[in-house]
Specification:
eight-stranded parallel sheet, globular, alpha/beta, 10 strands, 13 helices
Length: 290
């Protein structure tokens, strides 16, 4: 599936009236595992990127090029749309065209631009960017895209930062007025609670998983539910458990299902395509050289 086809598909999903679960991935393998499981779209956040490529917290450590390059590898490895975090846009409005260009060229299907300037994922006092500045960035991003199906999403962190749901709804509608195709509101509400807020929002809504069931979150009427840290945390727990077992027992067989499964892993990479190409192209060359 081409980048253009993925974007068309994601836009159709956004406007379908259905709700889709979207797992957060952290690399190409976790993305392929998600695709193989049947998910229709995947998500890459700066949290997973900072942790997986740098071993650092998501406190402004990731650069534009690091994020875009990581996204490119994941997008190239899969045939489903990728939604990507671009922090606050990495630039002010006048230069945000470069951000859009980098992620379009990376094969990403959608990006979200947030209003959280400082304090994310910490206990520090948060700083939220004023709404007019964020709207100018969204307008600039919309103007900069070359593919009209490349989605621009406005993200508000005010529910987390201040607990002010009314301000979040106000910001959501301002971001939509500025040209955003959808809004992502970072709050922890039940599906029914989110549905009440969605009535006040004049466009498609994206929400975060709040440790509830997908059946409950479908009640929100949101287009996508992001399980943003899922694959990273699962890998962390699996790796930690495997390392502890081997250190304690000295017996690789004690890892059980965490032990080597080359056959299944090779399907994920996949090696099959490589060996088929060897037989198609190199075997004939070897025969002709005799």
């Amino acid at each position: 599936m081409t980048a253009s086809e993925k974007r068309i598909l994601l836009k159709e999903m956004l406007l379908s009236g259905e709700t889709y679960p979207v797992p957060g991935v952290y690399d190409a393998v976790s993305a392929r595992v998600s695709e193989a499981a049947g998910f229709k779209a995947i998500y890459l956040g700066s949290f997973a990127t900072a942790a997986s490529i740098l071993g650092l917290p998501d406190t402004g450590n990731v650069t534009l090029t690091e994020m875009a390059n990581h996204a490119r590898n994941i997008a190239n490895a899969t045939n489903i749309p990728l939604i990507c975090d671009v922090e606050a846009g990495f630039f002010e409005a006048a230069n945000i065209c470069r951000t859009v260009q980098e992620f379009e060229q990376a094969g990403v299907s959608a990006i979200h631009i947030e209003d959280h300037a400082f304090g994310k994922h910490t206990s520090l006092k948060p700083i939220i960017t004023d709404v007019d500045t964020v709207c100018s960035r969204i307008r600039a991003a919309v103007d900069a895209r070359t593919d009209p199906n490349f989605l621009i999403i406005g993200r508000s962190d005010t529910p987390w930062a201040t607990g002010d749901i009314d301000d979040a709804v106000y910001r959501a509608n301002r971001y939509l007025e500025a040209g955003a195709d959808a809004v992502l509101l970072c709050w922890r509400l039940t599906g029914e609670e989110a549905a009440e807020q969605k009535k006040r929002i004049n466009g498609p809504l994206i929400i975060l998983n709040a440790n509830g069931s997908f059946a409950d979150e479908k009640k929100s009427g949101a287009s996508f539910v992001l399980y943003w840290p899922m694959m990273l945390y699962a890998a962390f727990e699996g790796c930690r458990e495997a390392a502890q077992i081997l250190m304690e027992t000295g017996d690789i067989k004690q890892l059980g299902k965490l032990n080597f499964n080359e056959e299944e892993f090779d399907k994920c990479i996949p090696f099959t395509g490589y060996t088929e190409r060897v037989m198609k192209y190199m075997a004939s060359s070897a025969d002709n050289s005799k």
